[in-house]
Amino acid sequence: MNPNHSGSEILENANPIISVIGAGAMGSQIAHRLFQSGAGPILTNLDGRSPETCKRAAASGMKDTSYADIVSRATYILSVVPPRDAFAIAKIIADTVKSSNAEETTPSQPRTKLVFIDCNAVNPSSAKQMAKLFVNTSATFIDGAIVGGPPSEVYNPGLYICADPNNQAVLDELEATLEKYGLQPFSLKGEGAGIGDASAVKMANSGIVKGTIALFTSMILASYTSSPSTSQGLLHSLHISQSTFINQMIRLVPQMTPKAYRFVGEMKEVAKFTEDQGLEDIGCIYEGAARIFQQIANAHEARGREHGRNPVYRIGERSEHDEIDVLLAVIENARILEAGEGGKSWGPSFK
Ligand SMILES: NC(=O)c1ccc[n+]([C@@H]2O[C@H](COP(=O)([O-])OP(=O)(O)OC[C@H]3O[C@@H](n4cnc5c(N)ncnc54)[C@H](OP(=O)(O)O)[C@@H]3O)[C@@H](O)[C@H]2O)c1
User: Residue 338: is it exposed, middle or buried by C-beta count within 10 angstroms (0-12/13-18/19+)?
Assistant: First the structure.
């Protein structure tokens, strides 16, 4: 066990003990919201984690301890890690439950049953694979998904949860607990509901929101490649036919460029989701979305190599224009158009 672990110092109280695995942009803010709302110290495991993650964990009321300690103390474990690590974390918890004889209780220390919630952007079949790890253990698997940005003073993302039909009471208790501690849970129940549905919400939401960003990006690039005036014509045509698209483009496209690398995997998951639902011909749309995001991610990385990790983009800064130059130039034109500053001849392509 890590010598810095302070599991034995953690004060237990009447509240259910909550653990959040993953102190990234999302996990740390979920933990912070729980902690600030009175849930007590939030257990986590920081073995092998980066200094940035350890810093975020400390600032969010998280306490580093071993997986064995987490499994023996916690009632709820939320996994909030990159999707590629989701299965590995579920397996660690399931294996720890099995090997820790967690079922054993003593009259003086009755154990509360453990509930593991996978909150990651995976497709429903991955969630079902994870659920299998918990069959014949004392722990209950809950499929979860987060839609929206990390919790903040002014914002609360949606946390969608669902369970096997036999575990509806556990789901209700989880929903009440998350609500009590300041999160915004939404449980999926009723006819036909079960494991995979929360992940399906995430996939369908991503398919619409990030799929739309991929369409905007592709058509901006394609029209500009045809000629700069084609991209201006495109913006004008959207302005007179679908003006809300202009507003969405301005809002969504520039903020996508540093996150494009994350969207690649998510679009591949959405492709698998559509294929699993019997929409085999639709998967290729999202494979294409993954490829366009990969192209933007490559441009972003190349800029990072040139300018440091978080480059500030300035149109015209470079002699050769990459995809990000083009996107930002066209979006600037969209802003000019939306602000009503241009007539027929609005907007330069590059300054
Ligand atoms: N950020 C958002 O706005 C958002 C929105 C909706 C849903 N989500 C979902 O939330 C999940 C996490 O996303 P994020 O944005 O928070 O990612 P992130 O900022 O990249 O952070 C991931 C965190 O997980 C840690 N981690 C990686 N592998 C781990 C492991 N094996 N055990 C424990 N910790 C591990 C990383 O630590 P290191 O620093 O050491 O690598 C890092 O702290 C994803 O499934 C994502 O789809 C995020």
Answer: middle
